[in-house]
Amino acid sequence: MAPLLATDLAVLAQVLLIDLALAGDNAVVIGLAVAPLRAELRRRAVWLGVGLAAVVRLALALVALRLLAIVGLTLAGGILLLWVAWKMWRELRRPAAHAGGGGAGLGGALLRIALADLSMSLDNVLAVAGAAHEHPWILAGGLGLSVVAMGLAAGAIAALLARYRWIAWAGLAMVVYVALHMIVQGWGELAGRLG
Question: CA-CA to 185 of 20 to 30 Å: which in 39, 89, 105, 124?
Fold first, then answer.
C-alpha cells in the first residue's frame, strides 16, 4: 500500500508543478478581462471566471487524449486568443473604462475569460493528463488547485492593472505573444500533417 501512496504523491506533485508553471498566463488574461470593471464587480468576475475556467479545464481533461489527434486545434486556439486580445486592446484604448468608470460589463469579461481559457488551457490540460494518466482523481484535484491559485493570482493582477495602466499594456503584449506563438506552432503542425 505504501508504494501506491508514494506513486500517487509523486503524480500529484508533477500535476501541481505543471499547473503552476502553465497557469500564469491564464491569470494575466483574467486580470486583464476584469480590470475595467468597477471594484465591487471585479472580485465576483474573478471567481465566476475561475469557475468557468474549472469547467473548461475539466471538460478538456475528459477528452484530452482525443484532442491530440485534432489537426489545427492549436492554430484555431491561437486565432481565438488573438481575437480576445483585440477586444482587450479596444477596451484599454478607452481610458474611462479602464479607470473603473464601468467599462465592459460582467458578461463581456466572463466571455473573454472563457474564450481565452479555452484557447490557452489546452497545453495545461494535455500536460497534466499525460502526467496523471492512470490517476483521474489526481487529475481533477490538480486542475482544481491550479484554478484556485489562478483565481488568487488574477485578483491581485486585476488590482494592479486598475492602479498601474502600463502593466495592462505589458500583459496584453504577453497575451498577443502567446496567441502568435500558438498560431505559428499550429501552422507548423498543420503543414507537417498535410505535407
Answer: 89
| Torsion from C-alpha of 91, 156, 44, 53, nearest 10 degrees | 80
Cβ(182)–Cβ(80) under 8 Å? no
- Residue range of the domain that includes 152: 2-194
Least confident span in 54-58, 133-137, 138-142, 148-152: 133-137
One-letter amino acid of 157 = I
Number of domains in the chain: 1
In order, the DSSP letters of the chain are -HHHHHHHHHHHHHHHHHHHHHSHHHHHHHHHHHTTS-HHHHHHHHHHHHHHHHHHHHHHHHTHHHHTT-TTHHHHHHHHHHHHHHHHHHHHT-HHHHTTS--S-HHHHHHHHHHHHHHHHHHHHHHHHHHTTT-HHHHHHHHHHHHHHHHHHHHHHHHHHHH-HHHHHHHHHHHHHHHHHHHHHHHHHHHHHH-
Each residue's pLDDT tens digit, 61-94: 777 656 656 777 778 878 877 887 887 788 778 7
Tell me how many degrees the CA angle 160-83-19 measures, rounded to the nearest 5: 55
∠ at Cα 175 (147, 116), nearest 5°?
50
What is the distance between the alpha carbons of residues 100 and 19, in angstroms, rounded to a whole number?
Answer: 31
Using a cut of 0.85, tell me whether the model's pTM lies above it: no
